[in-house]
Every structure is written in structure tokens, then in C-alpha cells.
Amino acid sequence: MTRAANYVVAYEATERGREAIELGLALARLTGAELRICLVLPQSTSVPAKVPASAADYEGIIARQAQLWLDEAMKSIPADVVATSHVLWAESTSEGLIEATTTFGSDRIIVGASRTGILKRFTIGSVANALLHASPVPVALAPRGYRAGERISRITCAIGTRPGWEALLDSMVAVSEGLEVELRFVTLVEVDADASLPLSSDDHLPTVLQYFTERQNSEGLVSTEVAAGSTVEAAVEKLDWRDGEIAFVGSSRLASPSRIFLGTTAHRMLHSLPVPLIVVPNDAA
Fold this sequence. Notes:
Elements: E1 6-10, H1 15-31, E2 34-42, H2 55-74, E3 83-90, H3 93-104, E4 108-112, H4 126-131, E5 139-142, E6 154-158, H5 165-176, E7 182-190, H6 199-213, E8 222-229, H7 232-238, E9 245-250, H8 264-269, E10 277-280
Parallel strand pairs: 1-2, 1-4, 2-3, 4-5, 6-7, 6-9, 7-8, 9-10
Antiparallel strand pairs: 5-10
């Protein structure tokens, strides 16, 4: 029997936790995956001086409160999505989430944005930053204020010309298999105001399209686009973005095998990107 895909959702009893669940719902509806809603608690036996309890009692109190938060979060899960809740203990939240992917055989980790960002934009918090330098599975980032719509109608994939772009395409093939969703492949180009568009950026997209069409089994429209601007941020802002859209980007070549390392271009994309972003390890399908 084929194993159902499942995604680890990094939950906390805050708006950031709610945004992670919202993105989890959107992705689960797109792919049919199950959700593992995880709240990670610090693995420490130290008890605050004002708490009249032993370490074991204190951890029990914290675990029960965490489960109450999770129970409340589970009430927001609609009937068409399968989800389970889990209280985890780890040295750090990112470590606990990565361990959860092994425990559950998960396909990706979903996290919310930091609260310092402006609405529908990203600011990378400490947990997301750690995951974007160590996760063995794709990491999906929800922008601040994100709410899931009825369905994801388009997936945009930002493709570079450097070695390793095939891994990102393989991930796109896997996630879009059998889906009726539009797929858009874009190249972001930085150009001076008086400079013409580099030919290499336009020449690369046909190669990308051929690679994808030879492997894909999706049922939606496939398109390509080159976006040019004085900066990566400006190029991103020149593209049209839908409410029901997610973006994919590959990991930097600096990443260790099967690990993520957020590259400079992807990091700069986040400054202007108004939709969820999924970052794929450099050799993950």
C-alpha cells in the first residue's frame, strides 16, 4: 500500500502558528496529504523558582497546557483534511521539527513568518532560519497574515541557471503529479536601467520546460516567464501574483547533500514575495 504523504506543521498558540496551519490546510487540499500538527517544548528539567513542583510535575503541567492548545487548534481543522496533534520535546524547536520528519516519515515542514514583517510579507524568525539551513525536507513558509483560500490555483517555480536546478524541477514533478493546477516557471534577472536582458536567461527556460514536460504528469496549463528588474526584489514585484498561489525555489549550492541552505537570491525574493514559499533541498524530489 502506498504511504500517504504527510506534512509537519510547526504550531504555537499564536498568529504565527495559525498561519502555519492555514498553509498546511492549503497544501493538504492540493496534494491530499495528512497534517502532523506539532508543538515542540524545550527539553529542560529546570523548574522556575516560583513553581512549587518537581521537574517531573512541572513538565507534566507544561505538557498538559500544550495539549490544550493543540486541542483548540484541532477544532479549526475542516472535515476534508486528516490531521493529528503531537506534543514533542527537544533541545530546540527546529531540532524537534526535524526529528518529527523522521518519526512520521514526513515530506515537508510548514512554518509561519516572524511577527516583525509587514502584512503578507516575510521576516525570517529564528526557527525558520534554523530550518532553512538544516532541514532534510522542503520547508514551506507562510507569510504574515496568510489565510488559505478555496484552492491553490497556480504554482510558480523560480528557476536559476546554475547547476542543481534539476532537483527543483524533480520536486515540481512530484508535487504536481495528477493535479489540475497551473504551473509557471520564471527566471528573475537583475539588469541595469540601460542594459538589455541577458540572452542566457531567456535561452534557459526552453531547456527547463523540456526537462519538465518529459517527466511531468500534471493536467494544468504550463507557462514560462522572465522577470527583469534593477534588483531581485524589483523583478519579483513585476510578476503578477494570485491569492491562490505558492512559489517554489531551490536550495543554494552551498547546502550539504539532502539539506537546505537558503541562497542569496531566495532570501532577497522573500522581501517582496506576497505568497507562500517552499524551499527545496538541493537533491530532493
